Amino acid sequence: EAGVVQSPRYKIIEKKQPVAFWCNPISGHNTLYWYRQNLGQGPELLIRYENEEAVDDSQLPKDRFSAERLKGVDSTLKIQPAELGDSAVYLCASSSDTSNYGYTFGSGTRLTVV
Amino acid sequence: AQSVTQLGSHVSVSEGALVLLRCNYSSSVPPYLFWYVQYPNQGLQLLLKYTSAATLVKGINGFEAEFKKSETSFHLTKPSAHMSDAAEYFCAVSRRGDNTGKLIFGQGTTLQVKP
Description:
By secondary structure, chain A is mainly beta. Chain A is built from no helices and 11 strands.
C-alpha cells in the first residue's frame, strides 16, 4: 500500500511569491489533515477535511493561506503571498478512522522563504 | 485547553543504556496520549498510543510508555538504546471522545545515541 505522498519535497521561494503543496492520501482515507511544523517545534494543525469538506480550518491563516480537496481525494495547500515566517515543514496526513487515530503522515514539504 | 510539555529538548544516551523521554500533559480529563518518532526528512511514525484502560502501553521497536494519572505523565522508555533510535520524538494529546483525530503535539525531544 502506498503511503501518503507529498510533493514537492523541498521548495525555496522569494517572499511575496505564491507557492502550492500537493498531497495524495492513502486510498480510501476520508479524513485529511494539513499540519505545519516550525523548526524545533511540534506540528500544529492547519486544516482538517472530511471527504471534500473542510470541517476545521480555525487555525488556517485565511488572509494568505487556502486549501482545497477536490473530489475528496487529493489536496492542495496554497500560500499567496509567502512571508519569511512561513518557512516550515508542511505535513499532510490521512486517516480512515479518526476515532482510533489511525493516522499516516507523509514525508512533508520543506518550505524556505528567502 | 489541552497542552503537552516535553521536558528536555535534547537527550543523549550511550548505546545500550536506558532511554527515558519525559512527557506531561495538562487536561481536566485524562486524554488520549501518543508518542511519535520522526527520522530526518521523514514524516511522523506512531510508536504507541494510550486510548484505553491499560496504563502500560507497548509500542514498536521495543518502546513502551506508562500513563500515570496522579503525575499527569506519559513518559517513553526503552531498556536498551540502539544507534537506530536516534531521532526526534514527539508526545501528543487528544481530547477523549473528540473523534476528530486532532492531535496537539509537544515541542519534541531529540534523542542522540552515542556509540
